[in-house]
From TrEMBL:
Name of the protein this chain belongs to: PspA-associated domain-containing protein
Organism: Sulfobacillus benefaciens
InterPro entries: PspA-assoc_dom (IPR054437)
Domain PspA-associated residue range list: 1-86
Length: 89
């Protein structure tokens, strides 16, 4: 799966890494719902670390992203706004 981190680039991650990201995604959504900034920061940074552990695609290589993450310095309030404007279906 190809995941883009805004303002960084694209990374290809394997299935095992994607499974770990999916588990953390549930924790992220809970942290956002509960307005838990410490938990959000810790979990989001772990997701970003996992994505970065994948294979970075060359910047000149244009590939469609399967998933797009906000920039790695995204705050809880920015994430809440993002998900309120573009809810997951």
């Amino acid at each position: 799966m190809i995941i883009r981190i805004l303002s960084e680039g694209q990374f290809e991650v394997d299935g095992e890494t994607l499974e770990r990201i999916n588990i953390l995604d549930e924790e992220l959504m809970q942290a956002i719902e509960e307005d838990d900034e410490a938990r959000f920061n810790q979990t989001f940074h772990e997701v970003v670390r996992l994505v970065r552990s994948g294979t970075e695609l060359e910047h000149h290589q244009l590939s469609e992203s399967d998933l797009i993450l906000p920039a790695s310095d995204t705050t809880l309030s920015e994430a809440k706004k993002l998900f309120s404007e573009h809810p997951l279906e």
